[in-house]
Structures are given as structure tokens and as C-alpha cells.
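[agent] plan:
  1. take the single chain provided in the ticket
  2. run structure prediction with default settings
  3. attach C-alpha cells to the ticket
  4. add a short note for the reviewer (M.T.)
[agent] executing step 1
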Amino acid sequence: MPRTFYRRLPILLFLFLMVPTANTALAAEAFQYIRIGDVDGFGFRDPGGLMRAFRSVGPGPADSDGDGLLGEGEFLPDLNGDGGVAWMSADNFDNRGFEEATNRARVCVGCLSIGSRTNGAVWTDLSLSASARYPNWPDEDGPQPPNNARFVFDFTISRDTIPEGVQIFFNLVFGDYDIDPALVGVGFANGQTRTLQISNQGPLDGLIQARTAVFAFDEVFTANADDDWHGFVNVVFLAPSDPYTAFDFVELSLVELVTS
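[agent] step 2 finished; step 3 output follows
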């Protein structure tokens, strides 16, 4: 090997170390959302042959637009074909996969970490029905009302990945709420609480609804010891008299859920 190569080796090594790698050159990903559950139409993977409750809205498919995903303005299916969706009509379903059943169906775009207190996926893709007899029931008191679903967001994001003071949207997708009252109780990182009202959509049996509420930045986030933002929100869906309802997902997002 020529001696000139060895003389140049320290210089080459120095230049190599000064070039940033692919990981260090990229900036941290901007925060977009943290979601509990997933956007999968309550776990109905192929709803094409499922029908809605014809007694309240007339005959038709549960997946009204035929896109293969049950969403807002569409319907939970009438599984036994008796014309209604109800706790006493054999319309119960448990579509939870492993991730939901073990409280691991959660994702965050732009998080440094998702805290261990984050939970609630076990409440999704499941009919919260008074007649249900499924294992791993999320309510320790069993399937009789109230089945007050609880979702906890606990996460950390880098300070430079979110504009301080921006509004945070709480997005919720649920189905077959038709018995008043229903409230959403919210507890924030700063210790304050809030109660959100949910309107009853009347006789539309099995209707899937979406709701959005706006949270202030300082309600959701507090600075931690590393000068990053720690987010914490505790949400409880209170429907003490409704014997049948279901949830697809809940999320905190920078984008408002598009509603019809």
C-alpha cells in the first residue's frame, strides 16, 4: 500500500465523521395525531353484504357508499336481519383483533414516545351490548349498562414539532347512540375538566356518528423536565341508559374530523 494513502487516512476519516448520516440529517417528524383504535369500520373487514336496520331508515346496505368501510353517516349492520340493531336482537359483535384486545391498537405520528398509561383500544370494534358474552370484557362490572368507555392519551412530543398554542381536535367515531343522556367527561394535563354534550340523532337505528371538540393547547400539553411537550387527556364516554353502542376510534389531532 503506498505510504501516501496512510498519510491521508486521518484526513479521510475526519471528513467521513463530519458527514451527517441519514438518521441525524433528518429533522424530527412533525406531530400530526395520536389515535386509540384504528380506522377500520368497527372491524367489519368486508361489509359489502351487510344490511342496515330497515325498520328505522328503510332497506339498504350498511355501507351506503360502497367503499368497503363503515363510516360516518352509514350504519352498524343488522346482523340477524330482523330490521333493527339492538342489544336483544342478536346484533352483538366482537371484531377486536389482538392489538385491540390487548390495548395495543394505538399509533402516533410525530411522537417521541407513547406513555404506558395510554389505553382504551379494548373498547373499540366491540358492541357494548347488555346481552354480550364475550371474553376480555372492558368493563369490570360486566355488560349491563352503564358501559362507560374510557380512553387515556399519554404521550410526549418534541417541542419543535408542533406550533405552540395551536388548537387540538378531539375526534370520536361511534355508532348506535340513540338513548339520552350521553356526555363525554374530559380530564386534562393541567388538572381541569370539561363536559362535552352529544346530541341524540333520534330514530336512525345503528347510525354511525362522528364528533369533534376543540381543546386548547395548554389543556393538553405541559412542558416536561427535558423541555419537551407531555400530552395527557383522560376521556370517559358516559351513556348510563344506553344498552347498545360501539366505538371505532378516538384521536387527538391537528386536523378536524370531516363531518357531514
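[agent] step 4 note for reviewer: The first helix runs from residue 3 to 18.
[agent] ticket updated
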